[in-house]
Amino acid sequence: MAYHGRGYRGERKTLQQWWGVTSSAEWQHQQRTLLALDGANPVWEFALSLRRAIARDFGGYIDTSYWRDVAAKVLRHRDSGETVITSDGVTKADPRPEAETEARIKGVQHLIGRITRYEARFRADGILDENRHVTSVDAWDLGRASGMARWGLGARYCGLKEAESAVIEAGRAAARSYRSWQDFSAGYILGRCLHFDDEEFGEWYEDMVSAHRILMSEPGSPWLNIPFK
Questions:
Q1: Contact 111/44 with Cβ under 8 angstroms?
Q2: Neighbours of 88 (CB within 10 A)
Q3: How does pLDDT run across 111-147, given as a tens digit for each residue?
Q4: Max alpha carbon distance in the chain (Å)?
Q5: pTM for this predicted structure
Q6: Contacts of 220 (CB under 8 A, 6+ apart)
Q7: How far is it, in rounded angstroms, from Cα 48 to Cα 78?
Q8: Which residue of 75, 96, 151, 185 has the fewest CB atoms within a 10 Å radius of its CB?
């Protein structure tokens, strides 16, 4: 936890520029958001959760065209006015306009294409093994939650005990979502790329490939010396 980054002033400036954090209260809000897995785009997790369900149904086999078709069916069903349970009892949600539904479907299907193209590149670059997929982008929030704890400590928006507690909580959540450091890394890199890279495979991607290779190969790497679970 003895991370000081660019020093006290540098860490405060970075938190303000990138996160809008200028106080302990704002830091705590961001930290809670990341640990609650509310910091990433929920559409990403929707698409990946559909694929997990398909993989369970078909013994691990996933056809991308079928994945796109299922996404369209689920969204049309939801937008037609699905029945939901609220504090007021069982109610039926109002249907969405058809044009809005079709736009949502187009967006999710485009996202599915992006995910599959990134995964193909991950396999070529050794981030993913053959026939493996990214199961979740929870790592994007949890990795940043670990960073946020250290940034908050360096900026003196929190104490050591609070920062350590956040890192431990992030680690426990990661162990529930993934089964290895490699799986966690792939989830983090996909989240980062979906957020920043826009399929350019530029420095947002290349920096992570370099870090992944070092952590998966250097004899002193914590990934090779500390069990994931």
A1: yes
A2: 6
A3: 999 999 999 999 999 999 998 999 999 999 999 999 9
A4: 58
A5: 0.90
A6: none
A7: 17
A8: 96
